[in-house]
Amino acid sequence: ILASTYTNTTATVINGDVGFTTGPASTPTGTHTNYGSVAPYATAGTDQGIALSALNSQSCTFTFAAGAIDLATDTTHGPIGIYTPGVYCTSGATSVGTSGITLNGSGTYIFRVNGALTTVANSVVTLTGGASACDVFWTPTSATTLGADSTFSGTDIDASGITVGNTVRWIGRALAFGGTVTTDTDTVTAPSCSAPPTPAPTPTPTPVTPPLIDVKKMPSPLSLPTGPGLVTYTYTV
Q1: Is the Cβ–Cβ distance between 177 and 196 less than 8 Å?
Q2: What is the pTM of this model?
Q3: What is residue 216's DSSP assignment?
Q4: What is the pLDDT of residues 163-215, one digit of tens each?
Q5: 203 burial class (0-12, 13-18, 19+ CB within 10 angstroms)?
Q6: Alpha carbon distance 209, 179 (integer Å)
Q7: I need a labelling partner for 99 at 20 to 30 A (CA). Which of 21, 107, 205, 234 fits?
Q8: How buried is residue 31: exposed, middle or buried, by Cβ count under 10 Å (0-12/13-18/19+)?
């Protein structure tokens, strides 16, 4: 969790870093390597801005019709409630309805929401087919509200504020540097994400230099060797 103001008045479990300027009345339980306004809080705020800019610069692979969109009932993008890796762009408020959505397949999912993001009570964002919370990103331009008893996945970057309803289960990150994050008897767990391996450099082939042959020392009749890396020359005397 990252926020200028973090509000929590009941028992909440946060497994991951918690950064804020103004802290909660009730300290969340769980495991926190970093907690409060000390380093790397300021750096995390800068990183949030860089990440948001990078995500919003990605080209849309699917753009919904103008207006409010329920991701759980939309059929224009493909099979109802099922999404494959891609960049999904909306021009209005976006919600995850009662029947929930399934993110199916290994790859990156970006939901660029030009408006508020809402999930209704008891809705579920399900990951299948190799989809990982590490690769799911939400970038609404207005506030995020997660309904009570819902299950959510991915990183939500929303400086307008993030409100997590009662007893929400969230695998991901709530990043609202400059805004407020509110939790209420929730369980938020940062996913364990490893950096992609660095590809091995392509070896540079070593040029093969053909051996020099002294034709004056060759037997008569002249017979030159042939084979890989050797060049055959014809001499006229």
Answers
A1: no
A2: 0.82
A3: G
A4: 999 999 999 999 999 999 999 999 999 999 876 555 566 666 666 665 655 55
A5: exposed
A6: 66
A7: 107
A8: exposed
